[in-house]
Amino acid sequence: MIMTGTIVNCCAVAAGGTLGLVFKKAIKEEYMKSINLTLGLAVLIIGLNGVVSYMIKSDDGVLSSSGELLLVCFLVSELL
Predict the structure, then answer these.
(1) Taking a C-beta distance cutoff of 8 angstroms, is the pair 56, 65 a contact?
(2) What is the domain range of residue 66?
(3) For the chain, how many structural domains are there in total?
(4) Other beta carbons within 10 Å of 55
């Protein structure tokens, strides 16, 4: 059973796309906007969680940082 997860994921994406096309007309525009904003926020939070969880590590009581912390600080300073 090689690539079972990949096949299941492809089928799920195809099914979700088909359902989206079928029910697109049934959902009001304001609900679609809210759903898109919510999904975008969820993706942003999941991505930040993945980055932040590996930014600072503690090894034997000593804090160490990797390059992601510097990158995030640089990007935040550029936005300001």
Answers:
(1) yes
(2) 4-79
(3) 1
(4) 15
